[in-house]
Design a protein that fits this description.
four-stranded parallel sheet, transcription regulation, 43% helix, disordered C terminus, 12 helices, DNA binding
């Protein structure tokens, strides 16, 4: 399929001139150049993107947002913040769900670039994938060369404006809380290994335990999808492998809710027999029973700050804004059971998906 650059090359004009002719710009173009461009369009059978033309004529009013899954409460809250600023500035949001598929994210960058969005925000975690990171940076650089603005939320191997939730500090807060309550047998329900968010939260947790002379062996970590069912399934596997766990850290609140479901199915009282700490402080965290002790991230503010970066004045150097984590004590974390060290193994029963 022919591109605008192909048309410009065939007509012997610059891409900007070809674009002015094809998009009907009011900027003057000589009749000779116009005829050459139109002849090249006919010869190459070039079909312009009608939506991209509309955006170009509207001075690139839309902002593209790539999230992992907007139905996930984490991304829903971030999107609220993005939408707040976009609405205030009369901007249209184009939201794309990648479902944590790196190839799909690359495709969406190209798609949004083709729609000539004014700015692009990557709102999901980065990946431990060198090939993907290289391709992503190449595509973002090409987009930036056309005047597009870029910001990321979370840790990405990308040199540019970023809003960074302090995931490592949040993991540290969760670990310190459980150590302070006397827990040693701590299991972790973690998200996918490939995500930088998972790595950072685990690193903070390990740091807190290490400062107390405690370890977090791999046998006490189960990786799963960052959702309720993933949390339920991972918790079941943890308990089957180590029935004497006294605490579980779930690396997001959706997983924590799944963990609570599994513990309830196995008749394990929270926090009397086992404690649970979540991460993110999604709105539902305060409404579950018992109310979830968790690590709060300012999710809406993260969206606000990212949109403000891409729509605000440009700066000569990248800006990185780190937003703090905060422990929220509710009802799911308590002191280690006194008899934990000498108790008999717990029954492995119940349906973890109930």
């Amino acid at each position: 399929m022919a591109t605008l650059s192909d048309v410009a090359r065939r007509a012997g004009v610059s891409p900007a001139t070809a674009s002015r002719v094809i998009n009907g710009s009011s900027k003057p173009v000589t009749d000779e150049l116009r005829e050459r461009v139109l002849a090249a369009v006919a010869e190459l059978q070039y079909v312009p993107n009608a939506h991209a033309q509309l955006l170009a004529r509207s001075h690139r009013s839309a902002v593209g947002v790539i999230v992992h899954d907007v139905s996930d409460p984490y991304f829903a809250e971030i999107t609220r913040g993005l939408q707040r600023i976009a609405t205030d500035q009369g901007r249209l949001l184009m939201i794309c769900n990648s479902y944590r598929d790196p190839d799909r994210e690359l495709e969406y960058v190209e798609l949004l670039r083709g729609h000539q969005v004014a700015a692009l925000i990557l709102a999901g975690s980065g990946y431990h994938d060198e090939a993907f990171t290289r391709q992503l940076n190449e595509k973002l650089a090409a987009y930036g060369a056309t005047g597009g603005r870029v910001a990321v939320i979370g840790r990405h191997e990308h040199s540019g404006d970023a809003v960074m939730p302090d995931n490592r500090a949040g993991g540290y807060l969760a670990g310190r809380e459980l150590c302070g309550l006397g827990h040693r047998a701590i299991g972790v329900v973690a998200g996918p290994r490939i995500l930088t968010t998972t790595t950072d939260r685990l690193a903070g947790l390990r740091q807190a335990l290490g400062e107390q002379g405690r370890e977090l062996p791999e046998r006490r970590i189960r990786y799963a999808e960052f959702d309720r069912d993933g949390g339920a399934e991972a918790t079941a596997r943890l308990l089957d492998a180590d029935p004497e766990l006294t605490a579980i850290v779930a690396l997001n609140d959706s997983m924590a809710i799944g963990a609570l479901a599994t513990l309830r199915a196995r008749s394990l009282a929270v926090p009397q027999q086992i404690s649970v700490v979540g991460f993110d402080d999604m709105p539902i965290a305060r409404d579950v029973t018992p109310a979830l002790t968790t690590v709060r991230l300012p999710l809406v503010e993260m969206g606000v700050r990212a949109m403000s970066l891409v729509l605000g004045a440009e700066t000569p150097t990248p800006r990185v804004e780190v937003l703090p984590a905060e422990l929220v004590r509710r009802d799911t974390a308590g002191p280690v059971p006194r008899a934990a060290a000498g108790s008999a193994p717990r029954a492995r029963r119940g349906d973890p998906s109930s």
